[in-house]
Design goal:
Elements (H helix, E strand, L loop, with lengths): L1 H34 L4 H12 L2 H12 L3 H26 L2 E2 L2 H24 L3 E2 L1 H28 L14 H33 L3 H13 L1 H12 L3 H26 L2 E2 L2 H24 L1 E2 L1 H21 L1
Helix pairs in contact: 1-2, 1-7, 3-4, 3-7, 3-10, 4-8, 4-9, 4-10, 4-11, 4-12, 5-10, 5-11, 6-10, 7-8, 9-10, 11-12
Length: about 325
């Protein structure tokens, strides 16, 4: 009993270090970019976009290096399920979310294509997705970012009233470098603790690393998205909240799994297929709710939360 408590404690510490370290690292890295006059557009689409998904990225890379890629798979898919179904559902249950689907349509379909392609790969390959599969996802992610940057640069060129630079004071370079190194240290230590003790929990409770990744680790690494979406929804900025979730989903599947898959082939567990089907089902239910009343009501949000809790119960008790 004491072993389980200590292992859970150190897992929580690791996840907390990951989340805080990612926050410090991203803020300091953005400061360094501003010191060298990197355009805000590039900062926003790279460093800031990386921010909320940094915990998943470092968990995925560490797990791949440690030979536990199933944890990376479970973490990414579990994070996407938690983000799309629970976080949006919870935010809508508190404050109904008005959504203009046309504004997010392109990114939504890109986000949906990731799980679909991953599911096809799982059905096509027998035991593992080879490194070429990870490289394919990285290529798709690079193409997506290139298209976004090109389109945004064009829009900025056509709109001379858009300000290019941040208005806040730029911190000194030495300070930014120091904090970037500090954040990186937190991330490395947090990643080590999280992966090691997540695998330890799986062993002590007789659970697979996939299930631990889908539940405990996915919830922990999704805390940045939960805070951002909840606060944005409370302020009536529903599209910002949805955009953050969709962007995180694209980053998780295409970049995190892509990078993890290049480092080490991704193992295919039978339960992951069901997890992906549930993720896609939740994605289309979200689409249905948005198209019916151009918003997600409190009742619909509650339905999404109950869907997630039912799925979570199934994963814990029957997997």
């Amino acid at each position: 009993m004491m072993n389980i408590v200590l292992t859970c404690f150190w897992l929580v510490v690791g996840l907390a270090l990951l989340v805080k370290g990612s926050d410090v690292f991203v803020e300091a890295s953005s400061g360094i970019a501003r010191n060298f006059k990197v355009p805000n557009l590039i900062i926003g689409l790279t460093i800031m976009a990386f921010g909320t998904s940094a915990p998943e990225a470092f968990i995925g890379v560490r797990a791949a290096l440690d030979g536990t890629s199933a944890l990376a798979m479970g973490n990414v898919i579990g994070s996407d399920i938690f983000n799309l179904i629970f976080i949006i559902g919870f935010a809508a249950a508190v404050t109904p979310m008005k959504i203009n689907f046309k504004a997010i349509a392109r990114d939504y379909w890109v986000a949906i294509s990731g799980p679909i392609l991953l599911l096809i790969m799982m059905l096509f390959f027998d035991d593992v997705i080879p490194r070429i599969g990870g490289a394919f996802f990285l290529l798709l992610f690079s193409g997506y970012v290139w298209i976004i940057i090109r389109k945004t640069l064009k829009n900025r060129k056509e709109d001379p009233h858009v300000e290019e630079e941040f208005t806040e004071e730029i911190k000194p370079l030495k300070r930014n470098i120091l904090f970037a190194l500090l954040g990186l240290g937190f991330i490395i230590l947090g990643g080590e603790l999280a992966v090691h003790h997540a695998v330890g929990i799986a062993g002590l409770l007789g659970m697979s690393t996939r299930v631990v990744g889908l539940t405990i680790v996915a919830t922990g690494t999704s805390l940045p998205e939960l805070i951002i979406v909840f606060m944005a929804s409370k302020r009536g900025e529903s599209e910002l909240a949805i955009g953050n979730i969709i962007g995180s989903s694209i980053f998780n599947i295409m970049f995190v799994l892509g990078l993890s898959g290049v480092i080490a082939p991704l193992p295919i567990e039978s339960g992951l297929i069901l997890d992906l089907i549930f993720l896609l089902s939740g994605s289309f239910i979200f689409l249905l709710f948005v198209h019916t009343k151009k918003r997600i009501t409190r009742i619909e949000g509650l339905v999404m939360v109950l869907m997630y809790l039912a799925y979570l119960s199934y994963v814990i008790w029957w997997s």
